[in-house]
């Protein structure tokens, strides 16, 4: 085990399952006594990055600020779970270069599946032209080329995806291997 924390950075389209899986990992780690914090897009945009829009420049500033906070926590022994669309490769590369123990988790769910889920009705609004700069519709999402972990959330249940993340953390020495109960 190292003395640093880690930053699990969940990236993927809206509706891919990022928040659901991240919440499951958070609850699991918290229940098992790990020092952990959760950074989620909606909460962060309301408090830390309020006033930023969804243009390329605003997304860049949003990710920069979140990355700073995540790195600060990680360097001080806290595990961080961050779930943000993070559509641009350049932003994720910047995070990888600046954030201590950055772990890119690509929640790879096909666009069609995300649109069927559409829990907030965002894809429908974007297709009607009501939401500009919507990732996957009017703005691109650049798939990670070499994520540290890829989750096929369209093929596996959220619980199975949580188990994959926990196994990754165990196998790479971020959390202990013994004493965890998934069920």
Tell me what the structure shows:
- The chain has a single domain (6-171), classed as Rossmann fold (3-Layer(aba) Sandwich), CATH 3.40.50.
- The chain is 43% helix and 14% strand.
- The protein has seven helices and five strands; from the N terminus they run E-H-E-H-H-E-H-E-H-H-E-H.
- Helix 1 crosses helix 7 (158-171) and helix 3 (56-75) packs parallel to helix 4 (89-98).
CA radius of gyration is: 16 Å
> Which secondary-structure class do the elements indicate?
alpha/beta
Physical arrangement of strands within the biggest beta sheet = 2-3-1-4-5
Percent in strands:
5-15%
| Low-pLDDT regions | none
**How much helix, percentage-wise, in residues?**
40-55%
Biggest beta-sheet profile: 5 strands, parallel
Name the CATH class.
Answer: Alpha Beta
The number of helices is 7
- The CATH topology assignment is Rossmann fold
Mean pLDDT: 88
* Number of E-state strands: 5
Shape: globular
> Which CATH-level-2 architecture?
3-Layer(aba) Sandwich
Specify the CATH homologous superfamily: P-loop containing nucleotide triphosphate hydrolases
Q: Helix and strand succession?
A: EHEHHEHEHHEH
Distance between the termini: 24 Å
